[in-house]
Amino acid sequence: MGAQVITVTSGKGGVGKTTVTANVGMALAMAGKKVVCIDADIGLRNLDVVLGLENRIVYDIVHVVEGRCRTRQALIRDKRVPDLYLMPAAQSRDKSAVKPEDMVRICEELRPEFDYILIDSAAGIEEGFRTALAPADLILLVTNPEVAAVRDADRVVGLVEAMGKPTPKLIVNRLKPDMVRRGDMLDTSDVLEILAIELLGVIPEDEQVIVATNRGTPVVLEERSPAGQAFRAIARRLMGETVPLFLSEDGQGVLGWLRRLVRSGGGR
Amino acid sequence: MSWLDRLRGQPSPRETAKQRLQVILVHDRSDLSPGLLEVIKDEIIAVLSRHVPIIAEEVRVTVTQDARECRLVADIPLGNRHGRS
Fold this sequence. Notes:
heterodimer, A: alpha/beta, Rossmann fold, 11 helices, B: about 15% strand, Septum site-determining protein MinD (chain A), cell cycle (chain A), cell division (chain A), nucleotide-binding (chain A)
């Protein structure tokens, strides 16, 4: 038993893997779960910065793999929530420094102590991708509603299935409801129809994410942020709750409610 | 998308994106390029023509998909012995 290992991946880079890992990890911890986030993007570490923990790194995952510290020593505890830990990547090494079997071993060691282990995968489909996927019980595939990102996501679905891993669950990140309404952007339903995998969540484009990343305080800590709400909903779904999907084309809050009211009135 | 484009009956960028993705993914998933499909079509025509009369110019070889399953579909109209082909 022990922790569920969840690997966050994508095909294309820059679609928000690290943001998803940090926020979903923190949301699970806010809900009282014991969580460790592992940065598997060796050489291009970022999860520490998004979580705002970059100044506290002493040891990293490569030190663990090379036996230069104990696994526990490479874990940084986030003081904002009860039970969130980060295992940072090494910045000065390359992807070959951690092999798939190393990742499996680290996860096996951490499993008994945690409820969730989240792995932030490197972009692309090379060595680092296989390392991040090796211990996964569940794979979250992040994409943006645009042609290149969806195409690359489809490639990942095929590769994951070829590896004999469970079919990934989809997270559509940075959806702009206004653009969808104008017919200028792919909607979640389009992406789902094309990829034909299960949807776990939709995160609306939200400027607060950039503000949060600048500060090093994940947006999920902002009560009112639409993206933060979407991340909390994803965490609850991972914990087995049924939470309605953020599919509303009108956004949340009072404005969205008013829009829906006006539209339903006008339709009759 | 502007109202003028809409008035002209232009497909929306959303529709265009979806259609482009569908075409791209048929080829990505099956690893069959449009050029290779032409080659396959010509060879099917050559083989079948030895046994039955077919209407070569109406033969269609396409890849279809249902969820994540791809299928190579050949539509081969038969000519009749006396008249066409």
